[in-house]
Each structure stands twice: as structure tokens, then as C-alpha cells.
Specification:
Elements: H1 2-26, H2 29-61, H3 65-83, H4 85-88, E1 92-99, E2 104-105, E3 109-118, E4 125-135, E5 145-152, E6 158-166, E7 171-175, E8 178-184, E9 190-195, E10 199-204, E11 232-234, E12 237-239, H5 241-247, E13 253-256, H6 268-272, E14 278-281, H7 283-287, E15 290-294, H8 305-324, E16 329-333, E17 340-344, H9 349-361, H10 371-380, E18 387-393, H11 407-422, E19 425-433, H12 441-447, E20 454-460, H13 462-465, E21 470-477, E22 485-491
Parallel strand pairs: 2-10, 15-16, 15-18, 18-19, 19-20
Antiparallel strand pairs: 1-3, 3-6, 4-5, 4-7, 4-8, 5-22, 6-21, 7-10, 8-9, 11-12, 13-14, 16-17
Helix pairs in contact: 2-3, 8-9, 10-11
Region (Disordered): 1-31
Organism: Paenibacillus montanisoli
Protein name: DUF58 domain-containing protein
Length: 492
């Protein structure tokens, strides 16, 4: 019995070892295939040399016309396919440039030009050019955009490859090395050169097409183009006509004092008359500051990065619209490194550009402070008349009398009540897939009744989520004119 058990255990161990070996061989299968190709090319070279030796031997032994013809052909093949490729290619230079009519945006396209120059002509050979674009963001799926083009150069030396990448996605793009492959017509000798041509491109965030936030609290709907022109300077900053109107209100007003109000705004005269503590406010204070709070944790979006990209584009849209209306904006993000802030002052274009670049490079984090808890902390420090727009992932409203309360929804309700007490306008924008059913607006309306908080679900279209960058077109020219024979064009 023990011998049989040991024998079965030994057979099982051998079977397990065989499976492990097969798994190990599965990984380098591509390299093995490439090596086999190289060995087959070397074998073809050896056969050509062997046939050349046999033809020379036959020519020495007989010296007939057939022997002379065979020896001449094999000698020409040996020189043209085995020797000439190693001397034909001299110095090689590659320059890359990205043609931008403006800035690159999510969903747009990018045109790249590669200028290739040989120090001497390479006739009777074919040339292949390969360029790749790699997303820098670690959250990407790692797919690389590869542009490939092959052509016959003839007697030309300078070439220009132009290709277009469509369906760009937000983030920073890194260009890798350019591979130039040169080979003979029979494919016996193929040489590959890697030219270091580093470069980067930044794709700015953009909300899904057709979205607008003019109906949100704190924004003026239907602003005309005349209101967006700077017409006055206050405090050294250019403001719009609408912002000027909001600043020049009908005069100061009063409201009930709340903890945190500045003592300089307390109406002491009203207090002396027995009216209690009152705080002076004005229309300028009612215009207030806009705070945009963006959720950046990956778990909140269920691992769907395009839901996150859509919210990043919406944050950029909100900030741009608020700045055009003359508001100061504070961008807040939660991540593994804690809360980060980016201030955008009205009329300061440099601040707006810095915020847009930060959003373009923003990556989600695996851990971070939960957004519902962060909302209540932010609301507690805001002044009356300010507005807070939270960009978060989809969450359920829950039930007020539920036996298992949902912490996220409870924090939202608490933050909404706190915002109502402090006179803060709170807006919660939720990103969700277009294929999913919309949450019950009645549930949120019931739980947030009387708080003035607005909860709005924003679906992300399937076309936006499935957007993948790819090479759409490529062509090779010589001095601005088509002077080469195209062999093939491929992209991946």
C-alpha cells in the first residue's frame, strides 16, 4: 500500500513538473518564434553560399555556358543580398514633431511627423519605419499605439512619414524609440536600427460631448458673448460684465450670526439695539467662491477609468465656466497623499492653464480619504454664499429608516443639512454608465428635502467609454511629394 502511494505521488509530482515546464515555455514562445525565423534566414544564407561554391566548382570543372550563368546569378545574389546591405546604410537620423492646431483634447486626434534621412541612397532595398506611442499613466491598460510603414526608397535619401492618431485619451503620452528596418528584396539580410527620439505630448481632459452646467446653482444660464469680454479691472484683475454686476449689489444686508463669521462683519449696532448678533453680507459675498471637489479613488469608480476621465473633463469644464463668469475657484482632490488644492483666481489665465494641466496629468489612486467624509469637512469651513460642486461616483440614496444604513448616503445627508445651515450651495454630480439604470431621484429628493442640495446623475456614453487611440492614416512623402513606392501600411 505504501509503495503504491509513493508511486502515485511520484507520478503526480512528474505530471506537476511537466505542467510547470509547459507554463514556463508559454511565456517566451514569441522569442522562440523569432529565433526560428532568424535560424531559417541563416539557413537560407548558408544555402546560397553552398550553391555559389558548387557553381564555382562546376565552372572550374566544365566551364560551359550554363555553369557561367549559374555562377554569375549566384554571385550577384550573394553580393546584393549578403554583402551590400551591410555597406549600403550609412548614417541615419530621425526627427519627430507633433503638429498641433491647438491643444490636444480627449477624443481628438494628433498628427505626428517623422523626418527620416540617410547619408547615402539605399537602392534595391526596402525600408520599414515603426513608431510607438505609450500612455504614461500607470492606470492605463498598457496598450501601445504602433504606427508601421514600409516602402521602397529608390535613389532618394530624405523621407517624411506622417500618421494620424485618433481617439486620444486624457493623460500624458510618451513616444518611444523609432525602429528603422532595412532589408534586401529576397529577405536574406534584415538590419534593424533603433533611434532614440524621445518626446511627450499632453492630452487635456474633456467632458462627454453635449454636456453643459449652466443650469447648476451658482452659474448664470444663457450668458451672452458680450458678458464674457473683460470690461473692468478690480484689484488688478480683469472681470466680466456679469461679474461686475454681481459685485455691485444693492448694498449690505444682514443675516443671523453663525460660528466662524469674521468679527469685522458683525453688526454691533444691531446687537446693541437688542436684535441679537447679526452678520453683514453683500451681493459680493453671495457670489462667493466655487469649490470643485473631485473623487480620485479607483475603487469608487469600480475600476472603470473612463468614468473617472469623464469627471475630470467635467471638472475642467466647471472651472473654465466659473472663471469666465469672474469667480475664484478652488480645486480639491482626495488621494493617497492626502488632500490637494489648486487655486484658480478670476482673470488669471496662468492659474487656469495650470489647473487644466494638473487635471490632464491627474491619475487615480488606490487609497484615499472617503469623499463623503471629506464633503462635510469642506462644508464646515466654507462661508455663506459659496458653492461646492462634488464630482463623485454613483451611490445609492438608501432609506432613512433602513436597518442597515449606508455610510456614504448618511454623510451626504449630513453635509447637505450642514450646507443649508451655513448658507452653502451644495451640488453632487454622480458619474455612471449609460447602460445602467438611473438611480431613484425620488429617493434622494426625499432624504434631502429642505436642504437645497442638488443631486444629479450624469451618464457616460458607451462610445466615450469604448474610445481607444489608434492610427487612422499614414503616408510617406519625399520633399513634400509622393516619390516612393508603398509596400504596406499597418497599425496596432
Amino acid at each position: 500500500m505504501k509503495r503504491n502511494e509513493r508511486k502515485q505521488a511520484g507520478q503526480a509530482g512528474k505530471a506537476e513538473a511537466m505542467q510547470t515546464g509547459q507554463a514556463g515555455l508559454a511565456a517566451p514562445s514569441r522569442r522562440a518564434a523569432e529565433r526560428s525565423k532568424l535560424r531559417s534566414r541563416y539557413f537560407a544564407k548558408a544555402m546560397v553560399i553552398l550553391l555559389l561554391g558548387a557553381s564555382l566548382a562546376a565552372l572550374y570543372a566544365r566551364g560551359g555556358a550554363v555553369e557561367w550563368l549559374l555562377a554569375t546569378v549566384l554571385a550577384a545574389v550573394s553580393i546584393g543580398c549578403l554583402i551590400f546591405p551591410y555597406f549600403a546604410v550609412g548614417k541615419l537620423s530621425v526627427k519627430r514633431s507633433v503638429k498641433e492646431a491647438g491643444r490636444l483634447f480627449d477624443g481628438g486626434e494628433m498628427e505626428v511627423q517623422l523626418k527620416l534621412r540617410f547619408s547615402r541612397p539605399v537602392p534595391f532595398m526596402w525600408v520599414g519605419v515603426s513608431d510607438e506611442v505609450v500612455p504614461v499613466s500607470a492606470a492605463r491598460d498598457g496598450k501601445r499605439v504602433m504606427a508601421r510603414h514600409a516602402f521602397l526608397p529608390g535613389l532618394k535619401r530624405a523621407f517624411q512619414l506622417t500618421y494620424t492618431v485618433k481617439g486620444l485619451r486624457r493623460g500624458e503620452l510618451d513616444f518611444g524609440t523609432v525602429q528603422v528596418t532595412v532589408g534586401d528584396m529576397l529577405g536574406l539580410t534584415v538590419r534593424t536600427f533603433e533611434v532614440v527620439c524621445a518626446g511627450k505630448a499632453l492630452v487635456h481632459a474633456k467632458a462627454p460631448a453635449g454636456e453643459s452646467f449652466s443650469d447648476l446653482p451658482g452659474f448664470r444660464p444663457g450668458s451672452t458673448s458680450s458678458e464674457r469680454q473683460p470690461i473692468a479691472a478690480i484689484g488688478g484683475q480683469m472681470i466680466t460684465a456679469a461679474a461686475r454686476a454681481s459685485r455691485s449689489g444693492a448694498g449690505p444686508d444682514v443675516r443671523t450670526y453663525m460660528p466662524g463669521d469674521s468679527p469685522r462683519r458683525v453688526d454691533w449696532r444691531a446687537m446693541a439695539r437688542g436684535l441679537g448678533m447679526q452678520t453683514r453680507v453683500s451681493n459680493a459675498e453671495e457670489a462667493g467662491q466655487l469649490i470643485v471637489l473631485l473623487e480620485t479613488t479607483a475603487s469608487a469608480y469600480g475600476g472603470d477609468e473612463r468614468l473617472f476621465d469623464a469627471h475630470v473633463g467635467r471638472a475642467a469644464l466647471l472651472i473654465g465656466q466659473a472663471v469666465r463668469e469672474g469667480k475664484n475657484v478652488l480645486l480639491l482632490t482626495n488621494g493617497a497623499d492626502g488632500r490637494k488644492e489648486q487655486k484658480v483666481r478670476a482673470g488669471e489665465r496662468a492659474d487656469l492653464l495650470a489647473a487644466e494641466e494638473q487635471l490632464a496629468r491627474l491619475q487615480w489612486s488606490l487609497t484615499g480619504e472617503p469623499l463623503p467624509q471629506l464633503v462635510s469637512d469642506v462644508v464646515a469651513g466654507m462661508s455663506r454664499g459659496a458653492a461646492l460642486v462634488c464630482l463623485a461616483a454613483e451611490m445609492k440614496a438608501g432609506k432613512a429608516a433602513s436597518a442597515e444604513p449606508e455610510p456614504a448616503a448618511d454623510y451626504v445627508v449630513y453635509s447637505a443639512k450642514l450646507a443649508a445651515v451655513r448658507g452653502v450651495r451644495l451640488v453632487l454630480l454622480l458619474s455612471q454608465k449609460a447602460t445602467e439604470a438611473k438611480p431613484s431621484d425620488a429617493g434622494w429628493s426625499k432624504r434631502l428635502q429642505g436642504t437645497g442640495c442638488l443631486v444629479k446623475s450624469l451618464p457616460v456614453p458607451q462610445a466615450y467609454r469604448n474610445q481607444v487611440p489608434e492610427v487612422a492614416d499614414s503616408n510617406m512623402t519625399v520633399d513634400g511629394e509622393r516619390g516612393v513606392i508603398h509596400v504596406s501600411t499597418a497599425s496596432s
